[in-house]
Amino acid sequence: MSGALSLLAELDKETNKAPSRKNSQAKPRTSRSTANSRSSSVQSRGPSQTQRPTSAPGPSPVIPPQNITPRRTTQSTNVTPRTSFELGTERSRSQGPDSRRVSFAEAPRPQTRTLMIPSKENMPSSGFPYNIKLNKYGVSEHEWSQFTKEIIETLPPSKSFSWLWKRGKITAIIKRDLQYESELKSALRQWNKGFRRRGFQVYLEIPVEKDLTDDEVSGDTKEEKKQAKKDAKKFRFIIGAGNSSSSSVYSRTSLAESVSREDKAKPAPISREEEDQLNQKFPQAQTNGTGTATSTTEGGHDEDESSIEKAPILSPSTDTVDHAPGSTQGIGPTERRDLYTEICILDENLTITSGGFMGLLLLWPLIPRIALPTFVMELALSNIKRTSTSNCLNTASSRNCWNGNYSIDTDSEEAWPDTGVVVAYTLTITNQTMSPDGTPRWMLVVNGTYPGPTITANWGDTLEITVANQIITDGVSIHWHGIVQKNTNTMDGVNGITECPIPPGSSKIYKFLATQHGTSWYHSHHAAQYGDGVLGSIVINGPASLNYDHDLGPLPITDFYYKSTYEEGLLSVSKGPPKADNGLINGTNRNPHKTAGVYNQASGLVPGAKYRLRIINTSIDNHFQVTLDSHSFQVIQTDFVPIQPYTTNTVFIAIGQRYDVIITADQTPSNYWFRAIVPKPPTQKGFGCGQNANNGSINAIFSYQGVELSEPTSNSFLIPQSCEDETQLVSWHEKAVPENEFVWPTAQELVVTGPGSSSLPKAPAPYIWSINDTYMEIEWDKPTLQYVTQGNKNYNVHQSIIELPDANVWTFWIIKNAAAVPHPIHLHGHDFYILGQENSVNFTDKSTLNFANPARRDVAMLPALGYLVIAFVTDNPGAWLLHCHIAFHVGEGLALQFLERESEIAQRVDLSAVDAECKTWDAWYNTERVDNAWNTEFDSGV
Length: 942
What we know:
Helix 5 (178-195) crosses helix 10. 16% of the residues lie in helices and 24% in strands. The radius of gyration is 30 Å and the shape is globular. The protein folds into three domains: 34-95 and 418-461 and 514-704, Cupredoxins -  blue copper proteins (Immunoglobulin-like, Sandwich), CATH 2.60.40.420; 123-382, no CATH class; 739-928, Immunoglobulin-like. A hairpin with a 6-residue loop joins strand 11 and strand 12 (441-446).
């Protein structure tokens, strides 16, 4: 398809004109200036790391792209623990759209099918595919490509359409006004400008109301007639022979005509009375949406300039010129009908959208008939998952939009922007004594604060983060939790797998593209360091599935121990999981005796305003149920995956998980408790969700504007006492997992064993957890990627490597838990699909699994004495860790790694950098290190 390929090359050529992302050695790096940040009137109480100006209440503004100024994040000297998450100060507010061209080459392209609707992102392969018969009718590949390009450029889709997928059923929400309703006819007329020049016309076939007999439909067999009768009751877009006597965009269904085998069906015009009725149903605007004036002929029939154009048509046999659109001179009627029947009939096997969405005809019977044409045309023009609306920008009233080319309907697994903007941060890790709840404790902190600074960027930005290790005694590596690291496996930050640790006095630059949007966190993946303070939040601004006025930013919640994680880890081996001394909300709380520390306090909620809150569980052993007294949560995102919004009073959040929720300030102005409670499942003896000495008092305060701040007297909702994931998670981008590829009972099983359940002789301390009777113990000085560099296949058995050599295939994993403790399972490099999750260790029935739009995320609970069935596609070459996110458990061996498409890794990442990092680590470890407990690998190492 040379025309399409040349068009793609032309697009890529234009793309290359856009500013490229800068490397770390070239010019000063840039990031966004916080000087442009505006806040609402909501104020924070208590010490704050940064003072921010305030402004009048109102929706969050969008910062225009020109407000990108040079800045480098520097280490803070203020070590006072933050007691507020600065409610309403818009720390993570949406950055404005970037006007530079997005790379077409980097976006994946769907497979071409019988007929695909054009989309702006994937124009050549998702437009109408070229059929060789078109050449016979005088339409070249280049002309066909240009025609589809014109359609895309001249027909921006409506902004008024939204839809929901709820538990396997379709619910359509159609918002129509006069201009929107006219788009059906206007769009069809615009399409016909191109088709009629070639003697064809696009019609919307009107379904018949009555049941048809076999004699009233076309078809050579009983099955064909049965299908024709079924299809005759549906609206269908078809392309047929042009009709020069009428410019109507409607036709009676071609399936309802009685025809002979020699005279195949064709569209039939409708009466003027029927046309008038349809015009009343779909009123006509003054223009067709593209500046082309339209008029209505006597009797209601529509005309535009295209209906009277006299474009020539080349004859297939003589290369003579046909005289007018609709004329059949030079093209036999049988040939026209052949073309019509072969490439232009929409059938139930047709995939309309990129990404595998089901054919429109499968949806049509579920939609009210009066809304059908508008609904279908919207699908056709927007390509549903590739929304391209040039004027659709992210504001308080249009959070579903982003930068005109991307929206909430863009699946970030398939497409993402590349803004060319580099956002730079420097994170310096130091030893320091801190008092988060008033109790002094030796900690490891980032830029002198706990939690560390929030990393903020826009969807499609490149993050360039320098991590400087100034810890006195130990190495460090930083993992960017949930970031899939497409083609940047060496940036995943897992020592012993993707890199060697960063030794004291050294630094590493992590650089990767933000292909996802939402909320996450970064943390050390060196032993259990993050439990000592090496962590912070990540916000990637992007579209949302519900509107809101203000973004409150991240709210990390964690357990807190007065001893170091090294000391607690040793105790956990001999005495079981330790009890946390306290829990912190955004790094602060009162201590259990209420003698020191402060609650995280926030005031200034404006009545009626909607707030986005980004909740993160950064614990090492505690899971939480979170709630805000008297206020409901509208949950819009889990981990980095947008979901269909649902309303709840409480949210269960496991270690490593994130939930983005909308809170509406719709209660009586007062002070309200925000609570994080460790549940106590009655069947798990208090160990299931972790233990906390201050459980019931892990709180923050939310206050309304004008209310004097004081301890609330509000009452809590009833808190579920379970450690089970939320059950109402329905991914916004519905995707089915191919059931036929799940082979039972030969699907891969991963059996988790622990204290009292292992079939092996007792492993050496501290390795008390294993998967398939193998515990993980990585080598800091020889990561997996270095094995790949050297072509060395002699892996240590305790590297726990599972090789996945095949590209783009589904892999299925049945994870069984033989222990009475649940585990939060986290996978690097992928979001996985949750097919099943039950409190039964014996998985025996494939029919219980959900293959139709299962929930997707990167952390899911493996129930106690239960199973978790997950699936993912091998589309990201690299070495990817799968592990329990309870820090004690992964330290005690509960992990494995997938070595995905090992033969391709060297082609995608710079493995020489891994060798250089390891030489730096070896030099320090072998010459400068002083032996002590902190730098000796005493556990799994991750």
